[in-house]
Design goal:
The complex is a heterodimer. Helix content of chain A is 48%, strand content 13%. By secondary structure, chain A is of the alpha+beta class. Chain A has a single domain, classed as Cytochrome-c3 Hydrogenase, chain B (Orthogonal Bundle), CATH 1.10.645. A three-stranded antiparallel beta sheet of chain A has the order 1-2-3. Chain A has a three-stranded antiparallel beta sheet with strand order 6-7-8. Chain A has a two-stranded antiparallel ribbon with strand order 4-5. In chain A, α4 runs antiparallel to α5. In chain A, 53% of the residues are buried. In chain B, 28% of the residues lie in helices and 24% in strands. In chain B, the strands form two sheets. Chain B has a five-stranded mixed beta sheet. A two-stranded parallel ribbon of chain B has the order 6-7. In chain B, α1 runs antiparallel to α2. The N and C termini of chain B lie far apart (56 Å). The chains are: A alpha+beta, B alpha/beta. At the A-B interface, α1, β6, β7, β8 and α12 of A face β3 and β5 of B.
């Protein structure tokens, strides 16, 4: 450290979201010169727990890895178990899983852009974004009976059907949401305050995005057109029409707009699912035998690729269950994004990767 | 697209291990999963640059014990490195025969291996060779090293994480029984 720099401790609490991560930042004047991350404040030892619970108990456990991606985890875990046991999930359940995933994606993205508005000091926009998100929260409560953990995925399919009463309700909520989402996009795109505070900061080039192996909206806003729903389709995504959103600017503003565009696509996906929903059972009603072996499954959570590796030794508890969340790599890329930024922009840049600390540390 | 990616992976693996060392499985959607086993940790140093060259991305690495709680004779660790190339997944499993287990770092080719390697090193006591920054990642230095190498019963885990607050409320105004005072685990 030279005499012109000093250390600025940021965190561990309330950097952007109310989750703990500690940043040891070297500052020269108002400019960030280097960043050290210290993680581990909310390590819960969940992978150790997963090895002591049976395959069915783990569905409940992994739903609690993350609140905002809480459907992606059990869905991907169940896919890994199904891959290993050779269980074929009924087609209707595939669609129901997509609906749950996309409803969660809309709510998650709205939450993130809302927090961004809050961090720019535009609190009325923050409250408006959260109010729009409330439409999806009500949809979740009405259809699944819960506003965060839907409890929808089980091994072999889904727990709850969407029937003649809940389908029109969900469609009605989407109708309410659509004009609001368009309006919100316009504000985030054009508002001078939002643009001044978020354009051109937190830059991540295509090369750096590749080098750090980032995923999700962070990668796509830097021109890496990687979306698992298209690259390695799962559930019913191969039958659905939607556009993978990308951008090349790779700044905080483009990541927020990309999330809003993805939310618009998600509305389209849910509508298609409800239109095309095939008949038949919603789960296999069968307890599969989990043979010894290993399996992998992936899905595109709101923040990017969620990866599950399952290894079985033939008993009723996994020999090893490992999962990796999108924020895991995106954290390290922050060292690039925060390089030479202003101290006042740190929280905005950290928020732009949509950080999820408790699920990174598990 | 999948076929081109599969070919590149096959070529990279066959340069190190010869043909026939890679097996494929697929899921109901036709997504492909490749599986390779390396018997010597040093082989990683030959295969990692080739995978990096064909554009593979490291997704994560999973370390595990052959016998998860070390209660039986089966001993030894393995690490499964999971790569992605354009939607095709390949898992390279490496056996670690040494005691203590050691493995070379693949951070020169995969920058994001940094955190993954530090994580399995702290959980299983695996020694990293050539890692730029081999300190602990998540776990506080006050916690035991290689914690996942042994069985910590769920009851112990839960007791360690709970306080006596609940029982103090239940027994409010009465004598708190000895067993509810905790501190013995």
């Amino acid at each position: 450290m030279s005499s012109t720099t000093y250390t600025l401790p940021i965190g561990p609490l309330h950097v952007a979201l109310e989750e703990p991560m500690y940043f040891d930042i070297q500052v020269e004047g108002e400019t960030v010169r280097s960043v050290e991350l210290a993680a581990g404040h909310v390590h819960r030892g969940m992978e150790a727990l997963a090895m002591q619970r049976n395959y069915f108990q783990n569905v409940t456990l992994v739903e609690r890895v993350c609140s905002l991606c809480s459907n992606s985890h059990p869905a991907t875990y169940c896919m890994a178990v199904e891959n290993l046991s050779g269980l074929i999930v009924p087609e209707r359940a595939m669609y129901l899983r997509v609906i749950a995933d996309e409803v969660k994606r809309i709510a998650s993205h709205l939450f993130n852009v809302g927090i961004m508005a809050h961090l720019t000091g535009f609190d009325s926009l923050f409250m408006h974004a959260m109010e729009v998100r409330e439409i999806m929260q009500d949809a979740k409560e009405g259809v699944y009976g819960n506003r965060m953990n839907l409890g929808q995925c089980i091994i072999g399919g889904c727990r709850r059907d969407i029937d003649d009463s809940t389908a029109p309700f969900l469609l009605g909520q989407l109708e309410l949401l659509k004009p609001q989402l368009d309006e919100l996009y316009g504000v985030f795109e054009r508002d001078p305050l939002i643009r001044t505070r978020t354009q051109g900061i937190g830059l991540l080039s295509f090369e750096e995005a590749k080098r750090h192996a980032v995923v999700g909206p962070v990668a796509r806003a830097s021109g890496v057109a990687y979306d698992l729903r298209r690259k390695a389709p799962y559930a019913a995504y191969a039958d659905l029409d939607f556009k993978v959103q990308t951008d090349t600017k790779g700044d905080v503003h483009s990541r927020a707009l990309l999330r809003l565009r993805e939310a618009v696509q998600s509305v389209k996906i849910v509508e298609q699912c409800l239109r095309q929903l095939p008949g038949g059972p919603i789960n296999t009603r069968e307890v599969p035998v989990i043979p010894p072996g290993e399996a992998v499954a992936r899905s595109e959570a709101p923040r990017g690729e969620v990866f599950y590796y399952l290894r079985s030794d033939g008993t009723d508890t996994p020999q090893r269950l490992k999962w990796r969340v999108p924020t895991y790599m995106n954290w390290e890329a922050l060292q690039v994004m925060l390089a030479s930024c202003q101290v006042a922009d740190i929280a905005l840049i950290v928020n732009s990767i949509d950080p999820c600390i408790s699920c990174t540390e598990r | 697209m999948n076929e081109i990616a599969k070919k590149s992976i096959e070529l990279a693996v066959s340069k190190v291990l010869g043909t026939g060392s890679l097996s494929w499985t697929s899921d109901v959607n036709g997504n492909c999963f490749g599986w390779v086993t390396l018997c010597a940790p040093e082989s990683l140093l030959s295969i990692a640059p080739l995978l990096a060259e064909c554009g593979a991305r490291l997704m994560t690495a999973t370390a595990y014990r052959n016998d998860k709680f070390g209660r039986m004779e089966l001993d030894g660790h393995e690490i499964a490195y999971h790569f992605d190339l354009e939607g095709v997944v390949v898992t390279v499993s490496v056996c670690l025969p040494d005691t203590p287990p050691r493995v070379p770092s693949i951070t020169p080719w995969f920058k994001n291996a940094d955190w993954n390697e530090r994580e399995f090193a702290e959980l299983y006591g695996i020694v990293l060779e050539g890692h730029p920054n081999p300190r602990r990642l998540f776990l506080d230095k006050g916690l035991d090293a290689a914690i996942l190498n042994r069985l910590v019963p769920l009851s112990t885990m839960m007791n360690g994480a709970s306080t006596t607050t609940l029982w103090e409320k239940v027994y409010a105004g009465k004598q708190l029984p000895e067993w509810a005072k905790g501190g013995s685990n």
